[in-house]
Structures are given as C-alpha cells and as structure tokens.
Amino acid sequence: MSGQLVVAQGIPWPPSVGDFYPPNVAGPWVTKFGIMVWLAVALLIIFFMLAYRKPTLVPGKTQWYAESLYGLVRDNIAREQMGNAGIRFAPYLTVLFSFIALTNLFGIVPGLQISPNSHIAFPIVLAAISYVMYLYIGVRKDGLGSYLKKSLIIPGVPWPMHFLLIPIEFLQNFINRPVTLAVRLFANMFAGHLILLVFTLGGFVMLASDNVFVQVTSVFSFAMAILMAFFEVLVALLQAYVFVTLTANYIGTSLADDH
Amino acid sequence: MFIAATDVDHHPLVPIWQELVIGTIAFGLLCFVLLKFVMPRMEAMYQARVDAIEGGLKRAEAAQAEANQVLEQYRAQLAEVRTEAAKIRDDARSDAEGIRQDILGKAREESDRIIAAGKEQLAAERATIVRELRTEVGTLAVDLASKIVGESLADEARRKGTVDRFLSGLESAGAR
After folding, report:
1. A157: which DSSP letter?
2. In this complex, is the C-beta atom of A250 within 8 Å of any C-beta atom belonging to chain B?
3. Do B52 and A120 make contact, defined as CB atoms within 8 angstroms?
4. Which of A62, A81, A148, B68 is least crowded, fewest Cβ atoms below 10 Å from its Cβ?
C-alpha cells in the first residue's frame, strides 16, 4: 500500500544500493563523492594551516584544537600501539585520523548527508597506503626473508603444525588485514547511511499514508532517525579511531623484534 | 517499485576506478601539505612545550636547591664568623690585659729608674756642693783668718789642718 503512495509522491522507497550512487555532476570525474573528498581535503588544509599559521607556546583556541587532535593520536594511538619509536608516525596517523573522521562525519552534515567512505574506493585507497606502509617498514627493518619469517612462522610450535599455521598466518597478515581495514570502514558508513535512510524516508512514507495511525507512528520513525544521527557521530569517530589504531598496530608489528 | 536515482546498478563492493584515482590524489595532496608544512611544527611545538614545562620545573628545583645550599653555606659562615668574633674578642681581652700589665710594669720600672737617677743626681750634686762649699768656706775662712790674723799661713798642710779642725769645731757646735 505504502509503496504505491511512494511512487505517487516520488519518495524512493525502499532505500537501495542505488541511493549510494547519485548521478554524476559532470562526467565520472566530477561526482558528489569526488567533490566531498576534495572539500574534506580543503577544509583540513585550511584548518591546520590556520591553526598553525603562527604557533605559540601557549596555544590559541584553534591551535589548541589542532594540538588536542595531534596529542590524541600521538599519545593514545601511536605511543600506545608502537611505543616511543612510533611517535614519528604520529603526523601521518593524525592526517589519516582527521581525514577519516571528517569524511565520516559528512554522513550527517545537512546537504552532504553521505560519507565518501560509503564508496569502497576511498577506504581501499587508505587501507592500501597502510598496507604498503607496514609491509615496507617491515621489509626495510628486517629484510624480506626475515620479515616473512617473522610474519609467518610462530616460534615454539612443533614443525608439522607449520603446514597449517603458515597459510593461516599468511592469510591473516597479508590478506585479511588490508581487506578488513577497508571493508570495516566502508561497511560501517554504508550501513549507517542505510539506517538513516530507512528511518528518515520511512517517516515520510508513513506521513504520506492515508491511515492516521500510521501517520502518527511516523513520529517515532523521525525520532529514531535523529537518535541514529547521533549514533552515527559516535560511529564516525569510532571508526576513524579504529582504522588509525589498527594501522598503528600493524606498523607496530612490523617494528617489533619478534612475532 | 525501485526508484533508483542512478543510471547503472553498481555493486557496492566494486570500487569505481575514477574514485580510486581521486582518492589517491586528494589524500596524497592532503598528506603532502600537512606533513610538510604543519605536522613538523606541531611536533616541534609539542616538544618545546614539554621542554618548557619540564624545564621550568627543573629550573625551579635547581634554583630552590641552590638557594638552600647558599642558605646553608651562609649559616655555616655565620656560625664560623661568630666563633671567630668570640675568639678575637677573647684574644683582644687577654691581649689588652697583657699590654696593661706590660705598660704598668714598664711605667713602674721607668719611675723607679727616674727616681733612682734623681736620687743619684741629688746625691752627686750634694756631694759636689758640699765639696765646693768646703773649699770655698775654707778659702773664705782662711782669707778671713789671714786678714784677721794678718799672717799668711803658707804651709798648706798646716793651714788645712787648722781649717779642718775649725770646721769640725763648727760641725760639732752645729750638731749640738
């Protein structure tokens, strides 16, 4: 019944994968998602440049925000995961964290209302950088042979077990890590957007109903949409934190001396 | 039923290759700018702040320690100076006593000496005077006697005897 109403009023119901692929703005190179990524880059550059235009020992407000962000990543992620040797990665991890957090938060910004990370291409790029980074660091530190040995061979197991363990370790360290890194971020943003669509569009669909009871019930749908929007903020920041923490953790295993 | 706002139905797990390129370039640019122009200064500022706070505390501690040390040194010096002063006072006191005794002794000696010299001189003068008087009185008496007697007593020995006798007579008369 509601479906017919939707068709009548042009509300796309039910939400589908198609909702994640709006028509191109101008060809495949200028899309909403592309523009959002450039917007995020521009905003971050402006923010950090402004914050650090004239840094002082006693920070101003903007500088303090920027430094809190840096301090969070530096002390709670880089040092926590990699020890003092990891502090040199804090700058990159800070950039990564702010980029993911901002693009994730686009999901609830009016007018944008979708995170670029709900297109898997962007998480793939970020995960690939992390992947190459920890592989490169590992190989540079130990050499290719030692690094593979360190990554694949668990010390102190009976040798026949290695027939089982080496493939598992390989899958774990070289396949699962980057794939889960990308997919986790993508899936969270994808699902989050879908949930918001369901409750928001569902509310409109119910509001458009002939039945008064269904119309009243739409209030709950909207309330749920608002609640979920707040929840999405949490998810957006949490996923950024998780992505960066795992990247730091992987780099940490490359820096470590044993398995 | 489906009113998909798109021309192609896209599988969500298949990346759009243009987006891979855009993502790489955009994120690359972001990393380049921030890692080159902002983050090094941020880390430097972070270190500077840590230094400033820890350094400040350390400096304060050092200053405190130094102040304490100086105070201690000061006290030690003060105590030393006090004992020194007491010693000097005692020394001075005993010195003064010594000097007083010395001067007193010397003065006594000097006065004794002067008195002795005076007495001696007096005695000498007296002796001289007595001697002179004796000759003069003798001469006068002789002259007088010669004038009275009109006779020159050439023989000195006799004359001396006469005078001596006369004087002894005078003395015994005076003593009487």
Report:
1. S
2. no
3. no
4. B68
